[in-house]
Amino acid sequence: MAAHGARNRSGGRPTLEEVAARAGVGRGTVSRVINGSPRVSEATRTAVEAAVAELGYVPNTAARALAANRTDAIALVVPEPETRFFAEPYFSDVLRGVGAELGETEMQLLLIFAGNDRRRQRLAQYLAAHRVDGVLLVSVHADDPLPDLLAQLEIPAVISGRRSADEALPSVDSDNFAGAHSAVEHLLARGRTSIATITGRLDVYGAQRRLDGYRAALSDAGRPVDERLIAPGDFTEEGGRRAMTELLAACPGVDAVFAGSDVMAAGARQVLREAGRRIPDDVALVGFDDSAIARHMDPPLTSVRQPIEEMGRAMIDLLLAEIADDRPASARRLEHRQLVLPTELVERASS
Amino acid sequence: MAAHGARNRSGGRPTLEEVAARAGVGRGTVSRVINGSPRVSEATRTAVEAAVAELGYVPNTAARALAANRTDAIALVVPEPETRFFAEPYFSDVLRGVGAELGETEMQLLLIFAGNDRRRQRLAQYLAAHRVDGVLLVSVHADDPLPDLLAQLEIPAVISGRRSADEALPSVDSDNFAGAHSAVEHLLARGRTSIATITGRLDVYGAQRRLDGYRAALSDAGRPVDERLIAPGDFTEEGGRRAMTELLAACPGVDAVFAGSDVMAAGARQVLREAGRRIPDDVALVGFDDSAIARHMDPPLTSVRQPIEEMGRAMIDLLLAEIADDRPASARRLEHRQLVLPTELVERASS
DNA sequence: AGGTAGTGTGGGAGCGCTCCCACAAGTGAT
DNA sequence: ATCACTTGTGGGAGCGCTCCCACACTACCT
């Protein structure tokens, strides 16, 4: 059963040639069987498959990559330091969705952190060497040069979260506007009158859209938007604390807070607790992402859920389609494959 | 500055040959410069480096992998479904440590989930194809066949958390025994008299060692070990809940709980809360891992910290050493490179 | 002068595949 | 019987690199 081919440099692993000899066919024919070409007779296919099984043949991917100019690997590129990546549950969630979907394919997943200049440099080299067939990009800021580099190198890429309303790259995003809108609507329906918001970094398009949704929900309800109730955060817990402190100072009468992420909501919760405000009695709190911490918070946090699994699946599907599509990139770009998936408000005890 | 080499199949990227022509040297010489061989004169090196810069040359890794039989990539293999991986902060933490350390090298990181049979099959194929230079293994149960497969294929591997006291593979682990010991000591010092423990899955060696540490700490203090105070968990939150429920039923007088992981402690906390027990007044609670949820819990959880960053670094160092070492695996194995890193008790309000 | 190292260099061979051209054999219309 | 296709097959060429042998050239001894 085990491999017994001639000892070659690669440690005794059998080659195509050896399989061919064993099956009594040519090298090309074995290659066709391995790659599922239809132009092979049933008898030959069976013989080759038997030889493959007997020798325990596994194709050498380096050789394949060299000859066919593809790698069967994609990279998930995170233009942030690891610390940020893991502090923000959204990233892990995306990774989980992507991992789940990719498990169904033959593609391999590379995880690349490009959080500082040196690593960016290395990433550029890596991409220039075309070591992956495609790239998944998460957490891209408005002015990030990475997407342009990708376009220039003609490497298929899909972006998680658009950079602007007219994103050039194929993208998958959740409906941040509608999500924020529903959160604020919910707070209004609960009878809250002084609803504040803590925003994410506004150079992230999604954060901007959540703010837009907040504004629109108030306007739609005929309420004025009080700019003092809008506090800038940066998606971190510390940022949430700072923003909440400011809000409390500027508007002591605030009775509801919509935070642009669960992590910031956690920060806000701390400050509220320390200020002696009860949640939800004195101040209602709503987050965004519906990440694990929302369930663990005390009280459990009402939050806007994004369909992460589905987003992962969609990203992979889009990317694989891009990779399979061999028209020049310029022709592809025109199609504007932008997916926006719906969000859902998950109500818990905090509101 | 941009690449202007002859249009070859790989999309116009310059090859070694083109760089050689430009620099007026031979192919071998360019290869030597690229790979930092000392056997090159200063003048030649400078000329080659100029040509590389002018053409924007980047080595083709597929060709290199084929010729040199290495891939410059390592895999982090997780023999669990994605869901488990991300539910357990310990994994993310290891990944973070590994990512941070790997960022300093030229190696790339592949993330492979092998949580079901199909994926295991695929992983075996993948490893048989030697698509990575080495493997990092996390969360391996006592009876997992993966380490043996790795040994058989002679693929360098490092395991995170030993499988037993006499682990055959190089491994990095934290001192689970001492960590648990210190946690229980701490509870004793706080005057607790009825100290229970919730264990992890005992087919994970680390969980067993934590239980051993619990027992030893009690014995060392001259206290008897009451078997009813030992409740089996499985590292999940739900398992923590179940275990705590059992403990409360079996020993209503319990005044302290040492949980084998923070996640299980979170589960226990819920049950305690629902049962009307105050933390730490009625029952003191200590976790293990010092993960993010420990800080976010209410009250913040006292927990045993593992030096995750350092563990990631150590794993990478060990693995790179294994890869660089070209003695046969059988010679290496004898050295038993086992690292056990110290833990530290982080005291918070829960105890 | 002849020998013997050492140093730097060029380029052939070969890694294991895919691509594609050539060709044999079969099938059916003229 | 001839010509066209179609279907299945073999194997040459080539992907871009590393490895290593061969060879010039220098330097320093006898």
TrEMBL record, chains A, B:
Keyword Plastid attributed: no
The UniProt record lists the keyword DNA-binding: yes
Record key words, sorted: DNA-binding, Transcription, Transcription regulation
InterPro entries referenced in this protein's UniProt entry, alphabetically: HTH_LacI, LacI/GalR-like_sensor, Lambda_DNA-bd_dom_sf, Peripla_BP_I
Domain (HTH lacI-type) ranges: 14-68
Signal peptide boundaries: none
PROSITE patterns per record: HTH_LACI_1 (PS00356), HTH_LACI_2 (PS50932)
UniProt cross-references to SUPFAM superfamilies, sorted A to Z: lambda repressor-like DNA-binding domains, Periplasmic binding protein-like I
Molecular functions (GO terms): DNA binding
PANTHER family: HTH-TYPE TRANSCRIPTIONAL REGULATOR GALS (PTHR30146:SF109), LACI-RELATED TRANSCRIPTIONAL REPRESSOR (PTHR30146)
Name assigned to this protein: LacI family DNA-binding transcriptional regulator
Provenance organism: Streptomyces rectiviolaceus
Lineage: Bacteria, Bacillati, Actinomycetota, Actinomycetes, Kitasatosporales
